[in-house]
Specification:
Layout lengths: L2 H21 L1 E2 L8 E2 L6 E6 L7 E6 L5 E5 L4 E4 L7 E2 L9 E7 L5 E8 L4 E5 L7 E5 L6 E7 L5 E8 L2 E7 L7 E2 L22 E4 L3 E5 L7 E5 L7 E4 L9 E8 L5 E7 L10 E4 L7 E2 L10 E4 L7 E5 L2 E5 L7 E4 L5 E4 L5 E4 L5 E6 L1
Antiparallel strand pairs: 1-2, 3-30, 4-5, 5-6, 6-7, 8-9, 9-10, 9-12, 10-11, 12-13, 13-14, 14-15, 16-17, 17-18, 18-19, 20-21, 21-22, 22-23, 24-25, 25-26, 26-27, 28-29, 29-30
Length: 365
Amino acid sequence: MTSMGNTRRMMSVGLIGAALALTLAVPARAGETPTAATDENAAGWELTPTGTDARFRGLAPVDRRTAWAAGSKGTVLRTTDGGRSWRNVSPPGAGELEFRDVEAFDARRAVVLAIGEGEASRVLRTEDGGTTWTESFRNTDPRAFYDCMTFFDRRHGLAMSDPVDGRYRILATRDGGRSWQVLPNAGMPEALPGEAGFAASGQCLVSAGPRDVWLATGGGATARVLHSGDRGLTWTATVTPIPAGDPARGVFGLAFRDRAHGIAVGGDYRKDQPSPQAGAVTGDGGRGWHASATPPPAYRSGVAWLPHSRNAALAVGPTGTDLTTDGGRTWRTVDTGSYDTVDCTPDGSCWAAGEKGRIARLGRR
């Protein structure tokens, strides 16, 4: 085994150990790190000081030290010291915008998506760590409402809008977000009546590898996941077991660890409504979805695979964090703090973000 292989194996073992430590943790009150029942070194969420009360639904950790977050009131934050401090790098004059997604390439280059009807949907890009921003797209169609975006690599990316003329609209870039073009919709299946995406966590559009991308839906009679294997030109739609049939129900977040294995989470985002089947899994790239045998106990909007793990993942929502160690088949609540989105980096760090300025790292006490 090469030294790189040894390093990756050590990362995997360490991270799985952290995940297993989480299963031993005693759930804490909202906002607190869980305490370990049997392991004083158990892992848990460690809140970081952000100095803002914005709600962060966009999250893009790059590595253990660098991460970006985007949220309400036009707020964008960046850390380069592992969350010990955050710098407000919000675009000037963006206070009325609602940023719901951010994709970052490194500590200097990032792309943020603002959501909303008509011109409220915009894309902005920075190449100097947020010191300056350039608006690279502004939606001029009042029928469009952009929800999420994803990048296959540093050049190629997509953003998705709720249906226009009965089909989801896909926006594409080939130059790292500097320019965007609306793709033809001939290969897009028709949307169901009332169907749309949810701009809840930046995870209603996700990719894996150089060409595969998945789009999560809700609000229609059934909750579906659409898949494209050619960077958004043609799509197929598959029904999931996550309940829909209401504008507040459906699939809210997706995560794929490769082009075959994926997890979907969702439910009903209303606080007074149950979410009895909030998780589903696929092992064939989304051609078929199967209900989690023990799903998360409540609505979940974000999900992420632990890096270098074939079976461990985290799901988050307003009422807590859940852990799976069997690829999404069964889940266990390990924290009761409120988060909207979660993401992990190849070098072994996991981050979560949500309401009231909450951004946390998974770490050992």
